[in-house]
Design brief:
CATH architecture of chain B: Orthogonal Bundle
CATH superfamily of chain B: MetI-like
Oligomer: heterodimer
Mean pLDDT of chain A: 88
Number of helices of chain B: 13
Order of helices and strands of chain A: EEEHEEHEHHHEHEHEEHHEEEEEEHEE
Distance between the termini of chain B: 24 Å
Order of helices and strands of chain B: HHHHHHHHHHHHH
Structural class of chain B: mainly alpha
Helix content of chain A: 25-40%
Low-confidence stretches of chain A: none
Largest sheet of chain A: 6 strands, mixed
Largest sheet of chain B: none
Strand content of chain B: under 5%
Mean pLDDT of chain B: 86
Shape of chain B: globular
Chain lengths: ~325, ~290
């Protein structure tokens, strides 16, 4: 275990950003803090970094009480959402910064700093850009400079705030796989904040799902996706259909947990009408309006295009629910 | 690798564009030139024209007499000191106003503009009565052997007072725009408070600070009203150049007065130009976007 936060509370004026949050981060894991904006995920990251102080609760850092430890003494590598590169410094000096500001006794000599910076730039695949200024490189390159700068201080933990938020879709995908690979190569404990469930599920070892200043669930991507602990987690992770219910429960079904049949299959299946057929790439999705309901359900066809060709809008079909998920309203577990 | 592609260089100005996007370029340029000529260049060239009525030896003796040289020393020296003091303490004031939240902050913020608004003679008289040997401040300085009123020190104090808003008001907006995440980043990388200021904050505000310094310095050179009371105007000791120009005018020595003015003008202009170049040189290296 490397970092443990216990019952962290943080308020900003009248707003409660974190309401008794506890989380353990294991050494060497890649953990995602996932939630909608305002859920408290960035605040939690900043408290772990020491950029914010908690109003209540404790923070244990590698066996040391870090509740009052200044950021300077925590040895964390923090990558800001907009990178916060020093724009009057070249890429070289940005990466070298953490080494150059060390006290005289522990500061490496110039040659050692140069070698270290070169090595880091090679690691983030930015060799040859030493003399550029941050304004002269692309967003993806800036992101990797920020990463190299954070790694230069040999941090005990790497903290990334919305690391892919400011990049376009293609660069995002490349960069997140690259970060996963970098994490595997270096083995450094890493925590990143994201509001994108796909991002969290794709690269994290474990995901902390947050909502409204609290943790909804902590688990591996498969756990939180297949066994959501609350209605919120189920709805937030991936596509989901909300099923009409009676009483104080919510029921959900994922589009790929529905079978579409041409003929009824006993009492299990429900009759409906195909309203739309949408082909997006290899996947085909049907909108099916069940008899007696107001909103069409989204159904994903496993066979893609071939299956899609079998259905026409206006056609009568039967749906069989393979797996529905039901939650009592207001229930909160798993934290 | 796709993400290695580099941002194309910024659009190289309107020269390469077939048509300008913003309309009225000719009109606004014409207006700017006309306005500058009318307001700035015509009066200044009148000064030059008047000076030109002097023969070269007479011009030279007018601008290099011992009394005039002493006044240059005082004017430039005291303005420089005042501007330097303001660069340091004006920065502190701007920093406090931007970064600290305290009751009465808005009041303090508006106090900064007071030297702009106050009639300079009022400021001069107020400062003189404060720093005279029986004044509120002067009576405490006197036992320490420090005389402020009627000395070059007094001139410096008056010019510091006058110049303060220039530094505060040029640095303040830059500090307000400076995201604290740069400082947080520096701190997280292990920098001390001083290292963070010197290596991260200072380079960002340096161009603005230089501008504020230049403005305060230029204002100090031309300042008259607030200085003449506290300086005592003793020839060779506490006589500033603008006063000397007035004295010459009162003696109907117009050409002599404009000759000194031309020297002041040339010196101030070269200094401001130098500071502008220095500022451009330091800021053009990185701010491309």
């Amino acid at each position: 275990m490397s970092i443990e936060a216990k019952q962290i509370v943080k308020r900003f004026g009248g707003f409660t950003a974190l309401d008794g949050v506890s989380v353990r981060i294991e050494t060497g894991e890649l953990m995602a803090l996932l939630g909608p904006s305002g859920s408290g995920k960035t605040t939690l990251l900043r408290i772990i970094a020491g950029l914010e102080g908690a109003d209540a609760g404790t923070l244990d850092f590698f066996g040391q009480d870090a509740t009052r430890l200044a950021i300077r003494d925590r040895q964390v590598g923090f990558v800001f959402q907009h990178y916060a590169l020093f724009r009057h410094m070249t890429i070289f000096h940005n990466v070298a910064f953490g080494l150059q500001v060390r006290p005289r006794g522990t500061r490496p000599d110039k040659a050692a700093i140069r070698d270290k910076v070169r090595e880091l730039l090679r690691l983030v695949q930015l060799e040859g850009l030493e003399d550029r200024y941050p304004a002269q490189i692309s967003g993806g390159q800036r992101q990797r400079v920020a990463l190299a700068r954070a790694l230069a201080i040999e941090p005990r933990v790497l903290l990334l705030d919305e690391p892919f938020g400011a990049l376009d879709a293609k660069v995002r995908k490349e960069l997140r796989r690259w970060i996963r690979k970098l994490h595997d190569d270096l083995g450094i404990t890493t925590v990143f904040v994201t509001h994108d469930q796909e991002e969290a599920l794709e690269i994290a070892d474990r995901v902390v799902v947050m909502n409204k200043a609290r943790i909804e669930q902590i688990g591996t991507p498969a756990e939180v996706y297949n066994h959501p602990a609350s209605a919120f987690v189920c709805g937030f992770l991936g596509d989901v259909n909300v099923l009409p219910t009676t009483g104080s429960v919510s029921a959900f079904i994922r589009p790929h947990d529905i079978d579409v049949l041409k003929a009824p299959d006993g009492a299990e299946s429900k009759a409906g009408v195909v309203k739309s057929v949408r082909a997006v790439g290899a996947a085909v999705r049907l909108g099916v309006l069940l008899d007696g309901s107001a909103e069409p359900l989204e159904v994903a066809l496993p066979g893609g295009q071939q299956d899609g060709a079998a259905f026409r809008p206006g056609e009568g079909v039967f749906l069989r629910f393979r797996r529905t998920q039901t939650f009592a309203d207001g229930a909160r577990n798993g934290s | 690798m796709a993400i290695d592609s580099i941002i194309p260089p910024a659009v190289p100005g309107a020269a390469s564009a077939p048509r300008r996007v913003l309309p009225g370029f000719g009109l606004s340029l014409g207006y700017t030139v006309f306005y500058l000529v009318l307001i700035v260049l015509v009066p200044l060239s009148a000064t030059l024209a008047k000076t030109a009525t002097l023969s070269w030896p007479r011009f030279w003796s007018a601008v290099t007499s011992a009394r005039v040289l002493a006044s240059y020393r005082l004017s430039f020296g005291a303005s420089l000191c005042g501007a330097l003091i303001n660069a340091v303490f004006g920065l502190v004031v701007a920093w406090t106003l931007v970064r600290c939240r305290f009751p009465g902050r808005r009041l303090v913020d508006s106090l900064v503009d007071l030297p702009f608004a106050l009639p300079t003679a009022v400021a001069g008289i107020a400062l003189t009565s404060l720093y005279a040997s029986n004044g509120w401040i002067g009576q405490w300085l006197e036992p320490l052997g420090i005389r402020a009123a009627y000395t070059p020190l007094g001139v410096t104090i008056a010019l510091t007072f006058i110049g303060l808003p220039f530094v505060v008001r040029t640095v303040q907006p830059i500090l307000e725009d400076l995201d604290t995440q740069f400082e947080q980043a520096a701190r997280s990388l292990g920098a001390s408070r001083w290292q963070t200021f010197r290596r991260v904050v200072f380079p960002e505000i340096w161009p603005a600070l230089l501008t504020g310094f230049a403005l305060a310095f230029a204002r100090g050179l031309g300042e008259y009203g607030s200085v003449v009371f506290i300086s005592g105007n003793m020839p060779m000791r506490t006589e500033i150049t603008p006063l000397l120009i007035i004295t010459k005018l009162e003696q109907y020595d117009y050409a002599g007065a404009t000759a000194i003015a031309v020297v002041m003008l040339a010196a101030s202009f070269s200094l401001l130009l130098l500071i502008n170049l220095l500022q451009r040189w330091t800021s053009s290296r990185h701010v491309l976007v």
